[in-house]
Automatic annotation (TrEMBL):
Source organism superkingdom: Bacteria
Protein name, UniProt field: CHAP domain-containing protein
Annotated source species: Flavobacterium hungaricum
Pfam families: CHAP (PF05257), PG_binding_1 (PF01471)
Annotated ranges, domain Peptidoglycan binding-like: 26-86
InterPro entries hit by this protein: CHAP_dom, Peptidoglycan-bd-like, PGBD-like_sf, PGBDSf
Boundaries of every Peptidase C51 domain copy: 147-239
Length: 272
């Protein structure tokens, strides 16, 4: 795999605890981030707390509640064993074995595996597009300006291609820009424009990448096509929400009407 930054998100340097001698702000922020991500999926857990790098009484209580929810010894200390449980969704998303008879199936199954582990962004220091999931998809980058939909797409294709010993960078450059991928598609003649896709949907295949067009050479959102129907496509896409925003906060399974939207399609066939 080319995109391996997620591995840094799976470890802390030392056990962290209230008034701990080895406490450090970055590790505490990681812990607080995962406590909040756990709370998103388990709203009654009592693990939501400020993400400020300070292991105070509120963070200690959140840790105790997390430990109780997961059947762990309740001591308020986060060592690597406890942290492993906190970060297990990320580890499962990036390291669970993926099966598939071909690259397209591998891409779909990889995307579905990430989806079921609930990737979600956080707001830290008043900055959206932050947190461990965003950093993992964006190779360490985060913050309001770091839209992460293409980072998600490339992470999925990278992970799937690596199963077959292939590099996704033979298909497209490592980038976070929809424009770069769209331009690459034009240059390689593997980008189907929305006008053509509407009249010939057979050109769209599961595992391909959709690019939402703003103007003919400006694209603002992307995702993985998982199924094609008469008027709609099903997708798995990052940095979106229920309304299909290009700057949402989660990975979601979406239905999009490609007959009414300006969706261009980047083919992965040359990598297959």
């Amino acid at each position: 795999m080319q995109k391996t930054f997620y591995q840094k998100e799976l470890v802390i340097k030392a056990p962290q605890e209230r008034k701990g001698a080895n406490n450090n702000k970055k590790d505490i922020e990681k812990i607080q981030s995962w406590l909040n991500l756990f709370a998103v999926q388990n709203p009654n857990s009592g693990t939501a707390t400020d993400i400020d790098g300070d292991f105070g009484p509120a963070t200690e209580k959140a840790v105790l509640n997390f430990q109780k929810s997961n059947g762990l010894p309740q001591n308020g200390i986060v060592n690597q064993t406890v942290f492993d449980v906190l970060v297990s969704p990320l580890k499962k998303a990036f390291e669970s074995p993926i099966s598939g008879n071909n690259l397209r199936e591998l891409i779909l199954n990889t995307a579905k595996n990430h989806l079921k582990n609930n990737p979600f962004e956080l707001v830290i220091n008043s900055q959206s597009n932050t947190g461990p999931w965003v950093r993992s998809y964006m190779d360490g980058h985060e913050g309001t300006e770091w839209f992460w939909c293409m980072g998600f797409v490339q992470a999925i294709i990278d992970q799937a291609a690596a199963v077959q010993g292939k590099s996704f960078k033979t298909l497209m450059p490592l980038t976070y820009s929809c424009d770069t991928v769209g331009t690459t598609g034009i240059q390689k003649k593997i980008l189907t424009r929305y006008q053509t896709a509407r009249t010939n949907p057979a050109l769209i295949k599961p595992g391909d990448i959709f690019l939402l067009q703003k103007t003919p050479n400006d694209w603002i959102h992307t995702g993985i096509v998982t199924a094609v129907h008469a008027d709609t496509i099903e997708t798995i896409e990052g940095n979106t929400n229920a309304g299909g925003s290009h700057n949402g906060n989660a990975v979601m399974n979406k239905i999009r009407n490609y007959k009414q939207s300006k969706l261009d399609f980047f083919s992965i066939e040359s990598l297959v």
